[in-house]
Specification:
eight-stranded mixed beta sheet; 9 helices; 8 strands
Length: about 270
């Protein structure tokens, strides 16, 4: 079943691999479900069923003109869980994918879900407001959108190295990874690339946090300049009762690759915990 149809008719490209307890991996902006290569291999080899999918507007999923909001994203996730008949599932959301986890739980409940993981996640709220004074200024988001409109591919070329913490003297990933990531990101609809900046940048997930009533693991890198831990992961972990907080010293946003071995170990340990 490579494609599942969302409620509005949009085709969602899904990969369903392995057998065992299901783990649904939800990708970040502006990549695709294929970003989870390292985690997919480790989880399948450990005896889990792994489901990845391309968010609407990205990768091989349909590219509608609009409907790039978290209510729609959560409903897309619900359709995938229902169509694949997934129960006792773990949801793992990276970056903007953490928003799907939060909104799914508040919108559709926990009946199918046993555990959740927020990895370098945007939850609970990124935007700077009077009650979130350390958030990201709206001018920063407007600047990102302006660069995308002017030269989306040029923006991606500049954005991706920082995503992985690449600098003049520090190269945690290969040129091959940078090229691959650019290819995945360039597959996205320009409309989705733009509209999702508003989705992950301005959606307030604080009201959704009360829906986290299952064991939750929160992982974030202290070197994340894309989604700083102090305004996201640290706050999410503090607000979710009983959550497990793990901080990776110096790790950048894209730690699913730069720290893949450690992420996999922590994920497998969490999944195995009763």
């Amino acid at each position: 079943m490579p494609y599942i149809t969302a409620t509005d008719g949009t085709s969602l490209h899904v990969k369903d691999m392995g057998a065992g307890k299901p783990v649904v991996l939800i990708h970040g902006w502006p990549l695709t479900g294929d970003m989870w290569e390292k985690q997919t291999l480790a989880l399948v080899e450990a005896g889990y069923r792994v489901i990845t999918y391309d968010r609407r507007g990205f990768g091989q999923s349909g590219h509608p003109v609009d409907c790039y909001d978290y209510d729609t994203f959560a409903d897309d996730l619900a359709v995938i869980l229902e169509q694949l008949d997934l129960w006792d599932a773990t949801l793992v959301g990276f970056s903007m994918g953490g928003g799907e986890v939060a909104r799914y739980l508040s919108r559709h409940g926990r009946s199918r879900i046993s555990k959740t993981v927020l990895l370098s996640s945007v939850v609970p709220f990124l935007l700077k407001t009077s009650d979130n004074p350390k958030g990201v200024d709206i001018a920063v988001l407007d600047g990102i959108k302006q660069k995308i409109r002017q030269d989306r591919f040029g923006f991606l070329k500049d954005f991706i190295p920082d995503f992985y913490g690449v600098s003049m003297i520090h190269h945690p990933v290969s040129q091959g990874v940078l090229d691959w990531s650019f290819l995945l990101a360039s597959m996205a609809s320009p409309m989705a690339t733009l509209d999702c900046v508003d989705a992950w940048g301005t959606t307030d997930f604080r009201p959704d946090l009360q829906a986290f009533t299952v064991p939750t693991l929160v992982i974030h890198g202290t070197g994340d300049s894309t989604v700083p831990a102090e305004i996201s992961g640290e706050k999410a972990a503090a607000a979710i009762p009983g959550s497990t907080w793990i901080s990776y010293e110096g790790a950048p946003h894209g730690l699913f690759l730069t720290h893949a071995e450690r992420v996999n170990e922590d994920l497998l340990r969490f999944l195995a915990t009763p």
